[in-house]
Amino acid sequence: xxxxxxxxxxxxxxxxxxxxxxxxxxxxxxxxxxxxxxxxxxxxxxxxxxxxxxxxxxxxxxxxxxxxxxxxxxxxxxxxxxxxxxxxxxxxxxxxxxxxxxxxxxxxxxxxxxxxxxxxxxxxxxxxxxxxxxxxxxxxxxxxxxxxxxxxxxx
Length: 155
Fold this sequence. Notes:
Layout: H1 2-18, E1 26-30, E2 47-52, E3 56-65, E4 68-77, E5 83-86, E6 92-99, E7 105-113, E8 119-129, E9 132-141, E10 144-154
């Protein structure tokens, strides 16, 4: 009986130490002044709409790239399993999401094919900074590397 009580107490401590996960849900607008964007080509969306449940993160990004408006929608599984969404030019974007142990940030790692038949990798870290959504992006492909930080205001 003592072993059972000990195991129950230990499991409760483990669960409590994991921390509650941040909920990123909302409509977020890019704050250009507070963001750190690439001088040459930025991948920053103008708006991000996030819907989050216990097992799924849906991220809708709206913006413009080289004068063309775009909308992308990624459905990211929050159980650590790989998920597949549409990528550039009809390709597949394969992503996995991992929560930080404290539940305060979510890292989404993605791979997608490029025009030159290569592969691009993207790592996005979602976290809250005060009342703002902060997204740290690192991208790499045969065309080079890029790092940006988006700070988005809640609408």
